[in-house]
UniProtKB/TrEMBL annotation:
The organism of origin for this protein: Nitrosarchaeum koreense MY1
Domain (HotDog ACOT-type): residue spans on this chain: 16-128
Name of protein: Thioesterase superfamily protein
Single Gene Ontology BP annotation: acyl-CoA metabolic process
GO molecular function, one term: long-chain fatty acyl-CoA hydrolase activity
Length: 167
């Protein structure tokens, strides 16, 4: 991926500019014999949509360094349409926190249920595969400011846990 070849400072961007959603149909191969979709299948889509947001924001390659607060609140079944909504909450230097919400729709009844949530941390990489600055976040709304403040607290907690687990 060609990224910022002249190393120009990247323009601040609002969370709205990089937000993304992905819609996928769940098939029998995604589920156990009772028809419950595997958590790992949902995680794969969470990682993918969060990666779109991170790369859109950073305008560079970006890789997953952590996933946390993954909650499967309600089951997703074969035949459901799974919609994943993702937005960026917080940027430090190269690291970015992306929040993903999963919603399952029963196509026949039209009923939509929030089935899961997760936070995914990505790191922006330069063309040599080294961490590089991501653009700052342009906080336009009260929600943007609140999510940024909450994201900062969670990131500090992650870094404390990272230090502990690498001992
Ligand atoms: C991404 C990678 C190059 C970073 O290397 P590193 O030696 O950890 O680099 P640093 O210690 O300088 O950390 C870089 C940034 O990542 C953040 N970071 C690293 N691990 C983290 C974690 N577990 N949780 C949150 N942030 C983390 C650091 O805080 C730092 O953020 P900042 O630049 O905003 O201050 C390296 O960890 C890597 O290659 N990981 C594998 C990624 C991968 O293959 N993912 C799965 C497939 S996409």
């Amino acid at each position: 991926m060609q990224n910022n070849p002249k190393n120009l400072p990247k323009k601040e961007k609002s969370p709205e500019e990089s937000s993304a959603h992905v819609i996928v149909r769940m098939f029998p191969s995604d589920a156990n014999p009772a028809g419950n979709v595997f958590g790992g299948e949902i995680l794969k889509h969470i990682d993918m949509v969060a990666g779109i947001v991170a790369q859109r924001h950073a305008q560079s390659n970006a890789v997953t360094v952590s996933m946390d607060s993954v909650n499967f609140i309600k089951p997703v079944f074969v035949g459901n349409v799974l919609k994943l909504n993702a937005r960026i909450n917080y940027v430090h230097n190269s690291s970015m926190e992306i929040e993903v919400k999963a919603e399952a729709e029963d196509i026949v009844t039209g009923i939509k249920t929030i089935t899961g949530t997760a936070f995914v941390t990505f790191v922006a990489l330069d063309k040599n595969g080294k961490p590089t600055h991501a653009p700052k976040l342009l906080l336009k709304t009260d929600e943007d400011r609140q999510k940024f403040a909450e994201g900062k607290i969670r990131m500090e907690e992650r870094l404390k846990n990272r230090k502990k687990s690498s001992k």
